[in-house]
Structures are given as structure tokens and as C-alpha cells.
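Show me a record, fold above all:
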Amino acid sequence: MNPDFDTLINRNGTNSVKYDFAREKGKPQGLLPMWVADMDFTAPPEVLADIQQAVSHGIFGYSEPKEDYYNAVIEWFSTRFNFQVKQHEIVKSPGLVYGLAQAVRAFTAPNDAVMIQTPVYYPFYSVITDNNRLVIKNPLVYQNGRYGIDFEDFERKIANESVKLFILCSPHNPVGRVWTREELERMNDICVKYGVIVVSDEIHCDFVWNGHTHTCFGTINENAVIATAPSKTFNLAGLQVSNIFVKNEDLRNKLQAEIGRSGYHQLNTLGIIACQSAYTKGGAWLDELKAYLTENIRLVQEFLEKRLPKIKLVEPQAMYLLWLDFSEYGLTQTELDRRIEKAKLWLNGGTMFGAEGKGFQRINIACPKSVVLEALERLEKKFTYES
């Protein structure tokens, strides 16, 4: 297999959130969009073929996953992450964020405290506050270009704020940390001590770099809720399919009941096909993609070191979303965001992920190398030769 990841695919006019909604999101036209976490690559050809076969059939009625679907999901996580799950322990969801919101509603009550580790994926805030729960922040510690966990703060706030639920981001978006088993076990010990339920967002688990190993939190705590989806791995977000692993029967019943109260019943018909196909046939394609993305990361590292040394790349242990530290420029976040825009780039400003993201930008490098290089050259022009 030799997938062509270098070809530029025109996504304009396809209802793409990434490309077609600049005006609606208050952005000028003509920016190079490298923000939202989808890829500028087509899905694996085997997946496209299976979808096309379904489209040719021409009927898109109510659909449910059969045993082959569940077996594909089970095999993927067993083989790649040594996490064993049974069919009845898989709760289907149209999306991971939807699943997180339902988990917040199922496992907590209004005004209960929910902990997150900031800076973090911004929907974590909304699924808590929009459901009238309280956000408790355990800010990550940034030292010497690396992020870590303040365990004393973690335990103190869980105890003092009577935290009921902890939403873990693993690997962590946007800072790119792959938590070690020791770190995960230490967090788990504290959560078990205080009776805190853990929901672990592991949607980026298939993209881990540089010899790091993703440890599924479900291998540490069988009572944890593990949220996954094939969307980031195979670029299938628009097909709305997610799998949430809940071994604990009481928690599973509560989550399924909450999802039922929302009126949700069936997955997207094509999403079922795409998910099963991807987990069954997409492994070789993913290996090729990871090799390509590794080269894109190396390109960014070398370019910044040689030509933009004041921009620091936080070590990308995971994900195709890179976390860039612009703090040496001494700009306010507003000034930094404005300069990024003047460079004709559309990135994610750091404070979108919380106040702790001040001075940072998140950039999506899941695109052809030529696009990555163009973005870097635009940064160089604006941050070296212009003000």
C-alpha cells in the first residue's frame, strides 16, 4: 500500500467546517485553515469502497450494529492496547463529545463539581457548564518545555471541592502528553480514595509518537468509562459514530438511560459501515499515515529550530495537533492571535483551551507536506520580517 498523502484536495464548497465557515466564525477570507481536528486526507480506500457499496444499494433506513461491528471494535482495542472489552459493555454514541455530555448528566447532579486538567480540549468546559455543573481546574504544570501533573493540587481540590467526576484527556489535547502508567495509576489511586468516577477521553490514542506507549485507563480501573471513536484516526468525524466502553453495570445502565432520555437510538447508517470497515481493514493505511505525519512533525521541528527559534514546539508525544509556545515574543494573546491572522493562518489560539494556554497556538499538521511548509513560511514572514 502506498497512499498518496501529498495530493492537495479542494475541500471548499463541501460544507466543511474547516474550510467553508470563515465568515460565520468571524474570520477573513483567504486564511490557510489548520485549526479544527480533521485531516485533509481521504479515508482509507477500503473504507471508501465499503461506503460506496452501501450508497449503491440506495436505501438508508434505520440501522443497528451487528456482531461483526462489535467484533471489529473489540479486536482493535484488544490487539493494539491490550484492553479487553465485551460486546454488551460497548455503548454507542453519535459522537464523543455527545457521550461526554451524557456522562456528565448520568453520573453527576446539578451543581456537582467536575474536574478537568487545563489547558484542555475546549468542549470539556461546555459539557460541564451547559449542564449546570461546576468546573474544577487542576492546571497542568509547564516546566522546561514539558507538561506534568500537580498531584498535590489534584488531591486537594478533589477533597475540598467534593469532586464527583474527573474527565481525563489521554493522550492530552492540546499539549500532546502521553501519560505514563505511573501517572495514570497515581491519579486513579486518588480518585478511588475519594470515590471519583473517571471518564477518559482517548480519541487520539492511535497517534502516539517517539516510542511512547498509550495506556488505556480501562486497564487500570475497570470502573472507568473509556470514550473512543474512529473519527480522528480515519477522518470519519462527519459520519457520527463513537464507542464508549463501560464495564461497570451500574454506570452503564445510568449512561444508557441518559442517552435514551435524549431521544437517541440508532447510529448513522454509513457510520456503522465506516467504523467496522476501518477497524477491520484500515490498519495498514494507518501505519502509512503515521509515518507520513511523523515526517511532518520532523519538518516543523527542524524549521522552527533553524528559522524561528523563538517559537518552541512542545514535545509532541501524541496527536497530529502540535502545541506551539510563542511566549518569547512577549505578546498578549490578542496581539498573538492578530499576528497569526495577519500571517494568513487560521490556528487555534491557546486561550481557547483555558487561561493556561496564553501565549500558545495549536496547529493541525494532518495535511500535505506542502501545506505545512507554506504555513511555516507564512509564520516566518510575519514573525521575522514583519511586525
About this structure: Residues 312 and 325 are 5 Å apart (CA to CA). The first strand starts at residue 32 and ends at 33.
